[in-house]
Predict the structure.
Amino acid sequence: MTIKSIMAGATFAASLSTAAFAEDPTKVGFIYVGPVGDGGWTYEHDQGRLAVEEAFGDAVETVYVENVPEGADAERVLQQMALGGADLIFTTSFGYMDPTINVAEKFPDVKFEHATGYKQADNVSVYSARFYEGRAVQGHIAGHMTESNVIGYIGSFPIPEVIRGINSAYIHAKAVNPDVEFKVVWAYTWFDPAKEAEAATVLIEQGADVILQHTDSTAPQAAAQAAGNVVTFGQASDMAEFGPFPRVSSIIDNWGPYYVARTQAVMDGTWESTNTWDGIGAGMVGIGEITDAVPADVKASAEALRDSLASGEYHAFTGPLNKQDGTAWLAEGETADDGTLAGMNFYVEGLTGDIPQ
Amino acid sequence: MDWTAINPILLLASLMVAATPIILASVGELIVERAGVLNLGVEGMMITGAVCGFIVAVNTGSPVLGFIGAAIGGAMLSLLFGFLTQFLLSNQVATGLALTLFGLGLSALMGQSYIGIKAPDFPDWHIPLLGDIPVIGPIVFQHDPMVYVGLLLVVVVWAFLKYSRAGLILRAVGENHEAAHALGYHVVRVRMLAIMFGGACAGLGGAYLSLVRVPQWTEGMTAGAGWIALAIVVFASWKPLRLLLGAYLFGGVTVLQLNLQAAGMAIPVEYLSMSPYLATIAVLVIMRAGRAPGSLGQSFHASR
Amino acid sequence: MNQPLLALSGLTKAYPGVVANKDVSFEIAPGEVHALLGENGAGKSTLVKTIYGLVKPDSGTMTLNGAPYAPAEPRAARASGVAMVFQHFSLFDAMNVAENIALGMENPPPQREIAERVRAVSDQYGLPLDPSRIVGELSAGERQRVEIIRCLLQDPKLLIMDEPTSVLTPQEVDILFKTLRKLSAEGTAILYISHKLEEIRALCENATVLRLGQVVGTCDPRETSARDMAELMVGSALLVPERAARPTGETVLSLQGLSAKAPHRFGTALRDISIEVQKGEVLGIGGVAGNGQDELVAALSGEMRTAKGMVNYQGQSISQLGPNARRKLGLLTAPEERMGHAAAPDMSLTENAVLTATTRQKLANKGFVNWRKARSFAEEVISTFDVRTPGPQNAARSLSGGNLQKFVIGREIMQTPDVLVVNQPTWGVDASAAASIRQALLDLAAKGTAVICISQDLDELMEISDRFAALNEGRLSAPRPAQGLTVEEIGLMLGGAHDMEIAHVDA
């Protein structure tokens, strides 16, 4: 981390003024929804930024603004960044979708890359990782590990990205443990350690002995550790400091290769608007080390699942699957198409509760 | 839905824990505002306390020293605010907001090498005899000491304002600083002490997050708790006991709504999520809004 | 003569640019009621603040009972037996009477004991007061009682009173004087500051007159005429406003059943006010502060809207019109509070002129201010009303109270209103400036303008009014011709003594 984090806004402004270097390096901007020190989602994006700096050295200049609220503020920050001469801007949260599209319209020469959204434009690419593949592996392990058969799930916001993860984890937990039950709590925040800890504690008090989280801080890990006998998984980042127990594995976002490739494309003038959705196979999603707290046979079967997802021989959403209300969704052997997954707004059969609308 | 999934004892017990950081921060701000100073930097002082407390606790291995360090850290930051607003007569609102930004940045800088480290254990007190009472024992008498420090602080502040001469002078300074000066009281001195007390309390509240509730250091971990504390002071009409009610209500409904969600309550989650804010505002507003201290937010200079 | 209680010798205090006190010396004997006279800015406030320990003199000495006396702060002064009742009360609205009293004492006993002593003292001096009441809800007279009792509880040897009667009805003044005479008889010396010369003549045995920070004379007020004392204060002959007899014309403004709720918690509701105002007359409205003056001004100026038909201008209801619309019609208002209400303190006089005169003087064209015209209008006000300032570019804040008052009143008069409402036009203004403001109001009326003058200064109202009405708890009494009204009649119109009682003579 750099000194920039002291006053992201102020130094950002300062870095704008020093932008006009003689050799004019390619300028790459990032806006983050949390602090780079969150140990999760934003931390991994910032690792991607550092990978870009390392790959190109003086040929690039990167700037970032952290803790940007989703909404009007994001639009303002984006606009400043574009005015400041950025050539390529990564907007790294779902809620930046409309601000990105709006600002991209005004700056046709600047390239934008929006993470986890679905709105594309001539100068806006979208990219995302198939986290649900990682969720499948987590669900598999969780189904084996639970003794109470209650698995707690901390959701952030009810968006397709999060719902896909819940469905995928549930399907694969159910596959190995038919009695498993999911309790979902929506925290309505990506990052609020106190609230996340609270949610984890509540789930544990209500009998969950495995906690899956789709929020960004490590607070639920700490809560599980305090409870003693609760299994967790690292989210977005490895969170290895909580291993080998309670954190038994993790999903790791690995944005570096993608960021480097896209920066290269801008330098070469070959950048085009694309829709990238890569998973374990392409390396955008990593499965963190499965610790020895997991029995060897479970570990082996989990790794087999991971490998089959990576090779593409198995799809995490393979029929037969019904929707929550019992209507048929996927027939035997049928796999879900990307369009449905991208806009997923329903639970699969067996999950209880409603998705907030 | 499954009511049996909710254990009322655990619910009430976690309510007390959830409310503690807000109680600590808001009781400090209450004193500051009763002295006529509006310090909007609670969030910044909280997070500075969180990181100071964490650093001290990790390095000494003692959570108690951590809390002391947090109180000192928060008070130091508030001194900056006090110097700017009381001696240089800067605008209190702007200075408070700047203090929050500064505190967030400063804490991120200080905490860089402490991300991902575990805090030393701060065990719960199992108070003998009282802790063994069924139902009430686990709810009230099996918490970490800071929960009781928070409660005690509210009672002490209440008694201080109501019964002590120093409390009377503090209220007088906040009510009408010109008159207090005319009677020979030291407005700026009283206010500086109040500001430091507020800073120390906010620091304790922040450290409670980083040492007990979460417990670890993460950038930006207060996530708006300081603003909630500020709001509760206003909604509690600057009265300590009402503040306690507000904080418990807020903490309680926060915990309750998560419990209801987990238990599969059929109420839309959006309503549950906004319920802590709505419930707190509704109750405290219904209890008749009080009057703000007369000189709140105004700069004082003896020559005027 | 006995040893003096307090002796001042050569007190000098200078502030940057102004000498507030220069070589001031005089003595006060035990039990003496001593008047301190002077215009605004003569240095009276600085002098009493020095005695009370709020200001440190640059040079000079004080002795109290023969011992050197140099209080470092008010606490020290109180400990030595010096107490003070402030002009603008040093009270805390949100606290109760007992708490307010405790704050003014050095080692206050517990609240319960204070309450008992308050009852005892208030009974002894005929100043009834409930110790548990919240001060913000008290009338001005009651608030003053709080201040006085706070002083009396400390058995002061010297009681300083700064303009104590400005907020009292004549009956309340009588009671206050009885209390003060009783105190004096018991041996307490009183330093009495006022510019109401008749009061001083009735109460004081000695007077020291200050002008520009210096003692310019002493006299026995009981044997000196008010006019002589005034000339001593001002340093020149005083002009008494001339009043030309004039016929009154048709009705321009009529209030019909004007009622309005109190705009805030410590405000007053207006109750069924009906009156008609004719062209060319001066209607004086008296009343103790806080009886609806501010609310009445707001209802007249348009700051507070009222129900249709309550405020009528030349037969049309203007109840719903805002201030600018009313200005356009010819109804102008000069509110009481100069700083912040009548004028924006940090803006220049030109800008302040623009604020109210744009509509009538056409200082703006299509939304753009014509600054040249605005400046010449401000200059005109300054020269016509003898406002002492280097020029219209100066901030309103830089003017002394009297000068700014002349400016804000002059600003409205220069706009040739058909109806002019003024509230406390000479409050805190020195005698000569006050006289010129009053003269200007009379001249305006002579030209046919209807002037409504709201004031707490009864002498002023008697001097300029054709008719007099009193505001009491939001109600307006029926107007009576001013000529021939006695002080007692006025007092009763103002609501009598507000349940004060006269000191028990036997106590």
